Amino acid sequence: MKLAVPRKLLYAAFVAAAPFLLLGAVRGSTALANSVLEKRYPPPGPMIPVSDHRMLLYCTGNGAPTVVIEPGMGMDWVSWWRVIPELAESATVCVYDRAGYGWSEAGPMPRTAARIADELHSLLSNAHVGGPYILAAFSFGGYIARIYASRFPESLSGVVLVDPSIEDEEGNQPNSPRVRHILELVPPLGTARLARLYNGEKDLPAEIADLPPAFRNRYLIASSLVQLKTERNEFDNVVESAAQAHAAVFPRQVPLTVITAMLPRPAETPGALSGRRESQDRLARSSIFGCQILAENSGHTVSLDQPNLIVDAILELARRPR
After folding, report:
1. What would the pLDDT profile of 16-75 be if each residue is shown by its tens digit?
2. pTM of this prediction?
3. Regarding the domain with residue range 41-187+223-319, which homologous superfamily does it belong to in the CATH classification?
4. Which single residue of 13, 21, 155, 201 has CA 20 to 30 Å from 39?
5. Contact assessment for residue 277 and residue 294, using Cβ atoms and an 8 Å cutoff
């Protein structure tokens, strides 16, 4: 004899299961979008084995020096689109996706600055990219660059830090308005990513539409669930990364240029700008060949506001004898 299930019970069960069904559908759709996008927009450079995962390395331009770019948290090298082509006219410029970002496969956790610095060194070594390099890093990438310089100084001819994060600077704590503002720059996920799947290059902003395919494709790949998880892990471990950078001793003989953005940031206190200028000046003086450049007309993203300052700073280091 069959027992009739009360209609109200069935309805309640459906309502309870609906969020999980919806979450599964969203995840499935996003995974499909990931797969289709990556087939439609293949990586522009080789996928280099690093430990148990592979990472994208894309180099353009010719000649010495080799400039390696380290983006900030939740961002990628597309934000350097006004810098890279200028540099590539007289140097080799290499960009990469950190493990878990863009085309690169996920790497081991936690995603701290020290781990990322070691992976960058392995990536360049395994790809047989000739050095010494000029390492140009932005924001959170400054932690990575400082640790890299402390561990592998012989591989560098100079370092350019673009408005770098400083561990004791106001606004670099995980819950600060500045950090939350940076995370707002993270590319879209979910339905927005699905929209890019169908719209393709019709979704490109005007300033990106005329860029080389590598930049257009990187923008269209945008974020994935893997990248979102990676970004979140970097964010959750930013205090540990700051401690690692603080413990790293910058090599005195490696030339260092620090570019400081001088326009106020969202929700800053009145003294934050002067504090940032002073702390970044102290950082510059950690090298006997250190200098600070003030980006008077730039917000945090100097690569978009005053890209010429970055280009000139890198080329100036390239002209110096080591």
Report:
1. 555 544 445 445 555 555 666 667 888 999 999 999 999 999 999 988 899 999 999 988
2. 0.84
3. Alpha/Beta hydrolase fold, catalytic domain (3.40.50.1820)
4. 21
5. yes
